[in-house]
Amino acid sequence: MSAVGGTSRLERLRELPSLPQVILDLQAALAREDVSLDAVADAVSHDQALAAKALRIANCSFYGVPTRVVSIRQAIGILGLRSVSTLLVAAAVSDRFSGIACAGFDLGRYWRHSVAVALCAREIAKLVRIDADAAFTAGLLHDLGRLALASQLSKSLERVYAHRGARDCQMLDAERAELGTDHADIGNEVGSRWHFGTEVVDAMRLHHEPPASPAVTLIDVVHVADNIAHALDLAHDPAEIVPPLDSAAWNRVGLTPGQCFTVFESTETELDGLCEALTV
Amino acid sequence: MITNTSAADTRAAVDNSPPKPRALRPPGSPERIDWLFRDALRSQQVHPLMDLVRRYREKDAP
């Protein structure tokens, strides 16, 4: 094992490109619940590339908007501020990580899996009556630590892929063996730095090991959604392997077989269109 | 974590033969599903999603 030292790792992560200020401001304002719709619309409109990408996502079939959305202000009016915030974050994150060179890491597969987990988490959240927008955001960002690794510590991640290839083990185990940390821990650092909100950051940090809880949590939902996305083989990864499923979290989510089939079907149906809008 | 399993569910766990070429594990096939859940099968555990995914894929099969 050749672990990435905590200090050097943090230094490399500090070099991670920041999200546009408008996104950071929006995250902070949403957390305080004092956000002004006009202020958001105006600020985003000044970043033309971001606004264009966000509008492309808003117009994909997933959102089911009956008329073409041509402005951020209109998107907020139709979809709501939290949904627009999510698609702005998605647009900003995908822009920030568009040019990654890391052997073994496939950016297209990364996004396909993330979008699948987002869609799946959203559907499950509706069934168990927790915040579906938060579930979508947490699902989309749950593996952000791996994206940060590919971007900032690519040689280290290449060792992880080599380790996994040699042992055919879980990526999480390969990360811990090679790096002394894992993508969930790194995601926690990045998510905190980018002000994604405690609930979403907790889901990023704990999605492989959901803690005990008296009731279903967002972490449980993302954990189960992540498992389903792997089990449905949606990322088309030849080395795909389904991670362990926490039985307590599975029971808290409590999907019936019929609900599972509905979630499987809706996730698969929506996946291609949203991937195209997000990554093209 | 996931629960213990029956002998029938562990067939892949005791299969030490070389991995099949990818062409022999087409997406959605029973062989591919066994491959996806190989970690659980190796450790002789039942993954609750395995049977659900199998039933879901069988529904789509011609």
Please, could you describe this protein's structure?
The complex is a heterodimer of chains A (280) and B (62). Chain A is mainly α and 280 residues long. Chain A has 2 domains: 19-96, no CATH class; 100-280, Hypothetical protein af1432 (Orthogonal Bundle), CATH 1.10.3210. In chain A, 69% of the residues lie in helices and 0% in strands. Chain A has 16 helices and no strands. Chain A has helices at 6-14, 21-32, 37-45, 48-58, 72-79, 81-96, 107-128, 132-141, 144-152, 154-167, 171-179, 183-193, 198-206, 218-231, 247-253, 257-279. In chain A, helix 8 packs across helix 13 (198-206), helix 9 packs across helix 10 (154-167) and helix 9 packs across helix 12 (183-193). The longest helix of chain A has 23 residues, at 257-279. With 62 residues, chain B is mostly helical. Chain B has one domain (3-13, 20-60). Chain B has 3 helices and 2 strands; from the N terminus they run βααβα. Chain B has helices at 30-36, 38-42, 48-60; strands spanning 3-4, 45-46. In chain B, strands 1-2 form a two-stranded antiparallel ribbon. The longest helix of chain B is centred in the C-terminal third of the chain and has 13 residues, at 48-60. Chain B is flat. Classes of the chains: A mainly alpha (280), B mainly alpha (62). Chain A binds chain B through residues 168-170, 227-228, 230-233, 236, 238, 240-247, 250, 257, 260-261, 264, and chain B through 1-3, 22, 27-28, 32, 35-40, 47-50, 52-53, 55-56, 59.
Q: Can you tag this structure with a few keywords?
A:
heterodimer, A: 280 residues, mainly alpha, Hypothetical protein af1432, globular, B: 62 residues, two-stranded antiparallel ribbon, 3 helices, 6% strand, disordered N terminus
